[in-house]
Design brief:
By secondary structure, the protein is mainly β. It is about 10% helix and about 35% strand. It has a single domain, classed as Jelly Rolls (Sandwich), CATH 2.60.120.
Length: about 200
């Protein structure tokens, strides 16, 4: 295990543009820190995004997809998600894509390394220590029922089509998402700029 994780927002930008290669390198570093296996498809196969908000360390995500099986009635997907220390996965939800092709996305997250504050629909119990970055919807979210998820905890989506988001703890978080198959065209984000950026990249 590495001694510590130490990133700066400026690490992920070159000439004002998001440096995807640096972001992918940081995810490999996160894996090394937690002694998490580094797969042959890493780092090239990792998807990274700052959602056009300009500060990957505050709001962003990295994902490594293993399967998104849409070819039969038994539709399923699995991917690993990676959050750097204190990084927020922006608030979003999943709409119906086309029920004849794909069902409404149902999902859950198995925390494997680090910890993540997983937030969704329910009674507002959000801890005062949780601060939403100002670049995310002017520092606001719409759902505030959270739980600190640690390794071995599986947190399911509260209800289909409901909004959800996460913020990683001080050592980041690595988790496995399991779900039925889905299409990114059905994803919507609370933050308008993040939403436009995400859909433009499809």
């Amino acid at each position: 295990m590495m001694s510590k994780l130490d990133f700066k927002s400026s690490d992920f930008y070159k000439d004002g543009k998001f440096d995807e290669a640096k972001a992918k390198e940081a995810i490999v570093e996160l894996c090394r820190y937690h002694a998490c296996p580094i797969f042959p498809q890493m780092p090239d196969g990792i998807w990274v995004s700052d959602y056009g908000l300009g500060d990957f360390l505050k709001v962003g995500l990295a994902a490594l997809g293993f399967v998104n099986h849409t070819g039969s009635d038994e539709m399923y997907m699995m991917q690993d998600l990676y959050l750097l220390p204190g990084q927020m996965l922006p608030e979003h939800w999943h709409e119906d894509y086309d029920k004849r092709i794909l069902p409404l996305k149902n999902e859950g997250w198995l925390i494997r390394y680090g910890k993540s504050y997983v937030v969704g629909e329910g009674e507002d119990n959000m801890e005062e220590s949780i601060k939403i970055p100002n670049i995310h919807h002017n520092g606001t979210v719409t759902v505030k029922h959270g739980v600190w998820a640690t390794p071995g905890m599986f947190i399911p989506l509260a209800r289909l089509a409901t909004r959800h988001w996460q913020i990683a703890g001080s050592e980041g978080a690595i988790m496995t998402e399991v779900a039925n198959a889905h299409d990114n065209a059905a994803v919507r984000h609370t933050d308008r700029k993040a939403n436009e950026n995400f859909l433009a990249g499809i």
